[in-house]
Design goal:
With 185 residues, this protein is α+β, with helices and mostly antiparallel strands. The chain folds into two domains: 102 residues, N-terminal domain of the delta subunit of the F1F0-ATP synthase (Peroxidase, domain 1, Orthogonal Bundle), CATH 1.10.520.20; 71 residues. Helices cover 61% and strands 14% of the residues. The chain contains eight helices and four strands; from the N terminus they run ααααααβαβββα. Strands 2-1-3-4 form a four-stranded mixed beta sheet. α2 packs across α6. The radius of gyration is 22 Å and the shape is elongated. The model has no long low-confidence stretch (mean pLDDT 92).
């Protein structure tokens, strides 16, 4: 909880700064890159959170990794955060910045989980229906889970629609467990 609050504050400060200087599109690309680096490289996160490694060493590492790939404002921001001892929150700050940017642009992320891959026409229908309901742009993230057997699970905002066969099977199992008839007759 505390980490999220800290990350939100730092992300909001960077987001407000990016709006003032009219560079939110450049910064969002940087934040997506930083988030993916942090998510894919656990050693990098461990290095950032290590109390043994000194701040100036961490700044040099961040500078070497990112200076050719991100905007000057973002790099300066990362170095300031590191100097202030908040480098352990970089992944969370990047994630919160992405959330703020999507909210600012009116983009809703929807997660669609299916048993099999869906084709482009079904994908477009789902996006169209969600756009119609939410009146926002939709970013659809697809995931395949064979254990659903069939159907789909759709998550967006704080809503979940579960139309999977696995859910139907579990529902039937509960009904059989509650069966009022005595077994054996």
């Amino acid at each position: 909880m505390k980490e999220t609050r800290i990350a939100k504050r730092y992300a909001k400060a960077l987001f407000d700064f990016s709006l003032e200087h009219k560079v939110p599109e450049k910064i969002i690309d940087d934040m997506k890159l930083i988030y993916s680096v942090c998510k894919l490289n656990k050693d990098f996160i461990l290095l950032l959170r290590s109390p043994i490694i000194k701040s100036d060493k961490k700044q040099n590492i961040i500078n070497e990794i990112f200076k050719k790939h991100i905007h000057k404002v973002t790099l300066t921001y990362l170095l300031i955060i590191t100097r202030k001892g908040r480098e352990g929150f970089i992944k969370d700050i990047a994630e919160q910045f992405i959330i703020l940017y999507k909210k600012y642009k009116g983009i809703i992320t929807a997660h669609l989980t299916t048993a099999e891959a869906i084709d482009l026409s079904i994908r477009n229908q789902i996006i169209g229906l969600l756009k119609k309901q939410t009146k926002a742009d939709i970013e659809l993230i697809e995931e395949i889970k064979k254990e659903l057997i069939g159907g789909f699970v759709l998550l967006f905002d704080d809503n979940q629609y579960d139309a999977s066969i696995m859910k139907q099977i579990k529902k039937l199992q509960k009904e059989f467990d509650i069966n009022l008839y005595i077994k054996g007759f």
